[in-house]
Amino acid sequence: MTKVQLSPDTTLFPVPVVLITCGVGNEANLFTVNRISSCNAEPPMIAISVRPSRVSHDLIEELGEFVVNIPRPDMELICDYVGTTTARKTDKWAETGLTRLPATAVQPPLIAQCPVNIECQVRYNITLPSHCLFVAEVVALNADESVLNERQEVDFALAQGMSYWSGVVRERPVDNFRPDKLLRKVQAWSSYA
Ligand SMILES: Cc1cc2nc3c(=O)[nH]c(=O)nc-3n(C[C@H](O)[C@H](O)[C@H](O)COP(=O)(O)O)c2cc1C
Questions:
Q1: From the CB of 80, is ligand 1 less than 6 Å away?
Q2: How far apart are CA 122 and CA 142, in angstroms?
Q3: I need a labelling partner for 175 at 20 to 30 A (CA). Which of 30, 43, 81, 106 fits?
Q4: CB 48 within 8 A of CB 35
Q5: CATH classification at residue 46
Q6: 6 in a structural domain
Q7: Is 4 inside any structural domain?
Q8: Per-10-residue mean pLDDT for the chain, 193 residues long?
Q9: DSSP structure class, residue 79
Q10: Is 21 in the pocket of ligand 1 (CB under 6 A)?
Q11: Do the domain assignments include residue 139?
Q12: How far apart are CA 65 and CA 133, in angstroms?
């Protein structure tokens, strides 16, 4: 089989796409992340990579807490929208219609519409060339009853592969991304969600 040489990239599959909530009260923000990994078992730990230019970076660094919210497949465009708009210019909660629920062990809110919400406290903060790696302990795990199997485990098949929706390496928004068109679709989604 002939191999084609591509430019170096983090070409892993599958690529999870999640919504991260961070900050508290009126400052609470949400943004999209795909640089995320399970990285320790006892205690359970998750690592996310965040560019220092993000509003969310400073909120996570200051509070030392965040929530990983796993979206449903029909939330793909929402993920693109909150991953291409910044809290500096957009009230992403108002635009998307996503709503907040109080977390149990951390201060940032959960996203009500996401069936799984993983509450995390940062234990290590590692500066990489382009990103900051936040390595965090999972301190609470919330799941909708609809995605639990008979052993009370999260079964992703019950939500039709909600986190691994994309069939290609998903580093960027979908093709032909236009914020105005996307916002209309996001608002249409919000009206029936
Ligand atoms: C599919 C997708 C994946 C993304 N993954 C990351 C990521 O892993 N780390 C990161 O820092 N930004 C990532 N982004 C970009 C941020 O979500 C984006 O810059 C966002 O506007 C930051 O919002 P904020 O300035 O309100 O914090 C991703 C965006 C998309 C659409």
A1: yes
A2: 18
A3: 30
A4: yes
A5: 2.30.110.10
A6: no
A7: no
A8: 88 82 96 94 97 97 97 83 91 94 98 95 98 98 91 78 46 56 71 58
A9: H
A10: no
A11: yes
A12: 13
pLDDT for 84: 86
Rounded CA-CA distance 99/79 in Å is 14
Mutate to test the pocket of ligand 1, among 9, 18, 27, 31 (most ligand atoms within 8 A of CB): 31
Write out the residue range of the structural domain in which residue 187 sits: 18-192
pLDDT at 16: 82
- Residue 11 forms part of a structural domain: no
Q: pLDDT value at position 192?
A: 57
**87 pocket-lining for ligand 1 (C-beta < 6 Å):** yes
- Compute, in angstroms, the gap from residue 151 CA to the centroid of ligand 1: 34
Number of domain units in the chain: 1
pLDDT at residue 129, as a whole number: 97
Contact 154 CB / ligand 1 (< 6 Å): no
Q: Which residues of 118-129 are buried (b: 16+ CB within 10 A; e: fewer)?
A: bbbbbeeeeeee
CA distances from 35 to 49, 92, 150, 153, 168 (A): 5, 21, 31, 24, 15
> Which element (helix H / strand E) includes 96?
helix 92-96
**Whose CA is closest to atom 29 on ligand 1?**
83
Beta strands in 5-131 (DSSP E): 18-22, 29-33, 36-40, 45-50, 65-70, 100-101, 110-111, 116-127
